[in-house]
Sequence to fold (967 residues):
Amino acid sequence: MRTKLLLTVCGLMLGMSVLARDYKYATVDGDLMKTRIYTLDNGLKVYLSVNKEKPRIQTYIAVRTGSKNDPSETTGLAHYLEHLMFKGTKQFGTNNYAAEAPLLDEIEQRYETYRKLTDPEARKQAYHEIDSISQVAAQYFIPNEYDKLMAAIGAEGCNAYTSDDVTCYMEDIPSNAIENWAKIQADRFQNMVIRGFHTELEAVYEEFNISLTNDWRKLQAAMNKMLAPTHPYGLQTTIGSQEHLKNPSITNIKNYFNKWYRPNNVAICMAGDLDPEKTIAIIDQYFSSWQPGDDVRQPVFPQQPVFTQPRDTTVVGQEAEQIWMGWQAKQANSLQADTLELMEDVLNNGRAGLFDLNLVQKMKLQKANGTCQLDHDLGEFMVMGTPKEGQSLDEVKALLLAEIDKLKKGDFPDNLLPSIINNKKRRYYQSLERNEVRADMFVDAFINEIDWKDEVGKLDRISRITKQEIVDFANQFFTDGYAVVYKRQGVDSLQKKIDKPAITPIQANRDMKSAFVQAIQDSEVEPIHPRFVDFEKDLTVAKTKKGLPLYYVANNTNGLFELFFRYDFGKSADNRYSVAADYLDLLGTEKLSATEVRQKFYELACDMDVSVGADATYVYLYGLNENMQPALELLEDLMSNAKVDKEAYEAMVKKVLKNREDAKKNQTGCFNHLLAYGIYGVRSSLSDVLTEKQLKETDPQVFVDLLKNLSNYEHTANYYGPLSVDKISALVDKYHKTAKKLQAVPQNNYYVKQEANQNEVWIAPFDAKNIYMRAYHNENRDWHVDEAAVMSLFNEYLGGGMNGLVFQEMREARGLAYNAGAIYNQPNRKGETESFFTHIVTQNDKMMDCINHFKEIFDEMPASENAFNIAKEGLTKQLASLRITKENIIYHWYAMKNLGFDFDFNKKIYENLQKVTLQDIVDYEKANVANKPLRYLILGDEKELDMEALEKIGPIRRLTIEEIFGY
Fold:
């Protein structure tokens, strides 16, 4: 199941339908997004919200169907269709659809035969024949033309997702691209053609392989099965079964598309710099021909059995043990939803919930949280816990249930509910600043059939729920009829190895171009003029009366603020500060306990954080500006008067050590440490931590003293908010206590990328059906500023998402991976060197195919004028519509300063970009990438890999998990 926390503001009445030209729309009184909701004649729903901050628009096209509606014999179908929606139509993705169509029909029929075969040899022969016909069809296929179209109009973030009830397609487009975007999407959703089927199927299967080591997925599937035993939520997963993925049906996919992908089952959700009246007219122009479906009603399933006693099951995997408990709930649009959402925050809100204060802060267990997941048909409320060292899962279970009992007894502060409402308001105001959040709220309302007036009025309704009503509801809801999933550590015997299929790579045809793509490229649109940061105009640089440097940007949008103090040293100077930052969260003062400190911040709808980066340290304060003064007083009191708690420190050390061991059981965690070891050597930001001995022997007073003395070092104050420069300056002077003369900061001992100038293989062990692999090159080449435009365009051409050369070759043409990429790295600070890497996650027996083809790409990089022009056009439009605003101006200032600039470097890239030619890219690649030695960093099971082939690349260095972690 999938859920999103939907926050709203006061507003109760649905506005009268009004007329915008010929288009009627609905509004809701009190809606701060001023959403317009249109319904076209064919049933297509359109949600529009205007946000003029930057000339871009977030677009989501949401189809009210997902894996819930997969045929039981071909699970995973909705998700696979999502992938195939990127393959083109009758107009694009092909150079001759008339010639291609009969071949695609034959492939479809052969798959229907193939999926019913059981004899291994017969299946192998049938697949060979499919592969052969696919080669013939591929001469007409132009892979990635959809991605080229999106690049050509300047779109970013092109992607999609599938869940139980929804399949959603997303793009972030320039505001001048609405018509071209609508033209493309209308064709895509009406005339989708299934092509490139067998290579894309392998990409989906690689995604399935990645999921095998994700124990969260196992826990979720097991919980769904117990709470929804006769519903598709519990009977099948979105990714599908291994057997069904290897036996797909194009016919079933077409039938599914024809039934559910209909305008009366779809919503277009857009937020950003748009004119609603012009936008709806364009959408109507291109989508009005889309024919509605006869029956797009959601199927009705039997009511789920109600249980009166606890039931449990167990899943097994390599990751750390944990326990989940779940209760059945009603669907997302039920009246119960408000209370469940509020009850979730009473238990855990990240600061002052029962779990937060009584379990996490007091470290009675390793982790604890709870969440309500409400979908179209059903919901569930889950609580999860991870044991600390030596603790059993049943002990964790007892602790979680004890806190639920407190909820049922009303054993929580009376001011907790008002505090929750204030924090919800704060998060809602923050969410309005992001177009993607606005559009996502539209998606969830449409998919779950929530009336927009109910969505807008949610916060007002929740604010009227009383403590007694929460207690009464909790007593009715939290019965003994719950499900328990124990996640044990061990080897999952259900995982099966699948050999790679014999796929002949299809032609990339990157120099081909359909007439449809050419027409989009030739279309004239009103240009968007770039607007880069002018630090002299956009950033106020001042000093407080006490002489503290202040960087200021006014917030003219809402009542939120962010204040932070930045110190120009970090973990690389003194790794004790990371421990001090974590320890502070457990401390109080002489006057306030640690619990009271957290509660007071939460009451103020403000929060604080001490963040220690590799090279800089930040003390943050943020929230409702009306409460900034008492929040700043509270922060300064805590920093100056934190009181040592030795018992809390000892518990924290145990928790830190347990987290370190748990990370060694996680595939992604292990790979990240392998990367850090392979790039930086034995000393990196990940490995540079206090040892177990140091943690246990250090007096915790040391860490408190580090924080108390922090403000006596040279630092800057930085503010984004509605106060004037003079007012924030006065507040900082009054409450932020510093020495009269500040000390120089400790010197950073930077983590330095190591030279990698010979072919070699470094491998670390992890038992999985796939490998994570990165090939890294670094010859300590200084960064050449004048090459920045060439480097940026090279990266766009080579690894620029789905339109990049690597993605096309590794995934589209060969089906070798779910994700693959490559990038030439620009340094983050002056004096740091350049480097290059490739990245791929692939099935074990595809490893050498990946290595060999990466080498082919980079030793003789394919040069395509067509692909180059699209990459250049796309990057130019992205930069022209880029807007760095609000608090990001301050962060961008520091980023530029680290590189030695006092100006926005994006401007220099944009100005030089037009001079870059394809030959420049080819020359750059030959000079810096082609035939260069590589250090292969591989996380995988050596027993499943072709070690003889790896030995031919270069010397093999076998690393242990302890070596790469450094402990």
Remarks:
- The chain has a mean pLDDT of 94.
- DSSP finds 38 helices and 25 strands in the chain.
